Amino acid sequence: MKAFPKFDYQGIEYDLTHLTAFSCDYIQPAKSDGTAEKRYRCIIEFSTHCFTRGENKRKGEKLSDIESALHYVTAKETRIFCFERYQVSKMLPQIMREISRNKCYFTSADDKFLTISVTDKNGKKVDYEIYFSLQRAKSPKHDVHIYINSAYIRDGDYKENHGTKVRRKPVGFFVLLHNTLINKRIKRPK
Asked: Who is most buried in 16, 66, 96, 151, counting CB within 10 A?
């Protein structure tokens, strides 16, 4: 997989090589019931949504309202380069290397997500939401392909519907990997 092209704005270059796809092995420890240790060889890939944002429809924002120098253009879409998402995205590779230590949750779209507390630019703890999907890898070098669909700090501009807190159900990361590998549908807990 190739790296995202760097982004230039007002003479400053924003390097995106930290979001180049990489391989990562996750090791599920052996269990006391005699179940052996299991290794999952994964490829982790990131989307542009990890460092760009869409128009804020709540505020009636249109792409044409945004300075064109901030447009990040790909063959699929044009989005807005987001300095905050870019800054926080530098932590994504390490977060994904350690994802098996955290609980994952279902979203309404049946993708999975993970929430990590991070410190924002003002020194305040905030929730960094990472949305990802899994599928069996096509490469014989990997078992599972993990695609990071989006990642951002939840703020007032991107609140959940009507400001109500959605009760999310946890699912173990190794359950996600195992079920993906054996083509077993991952059911949302009730």
From this structure: 151
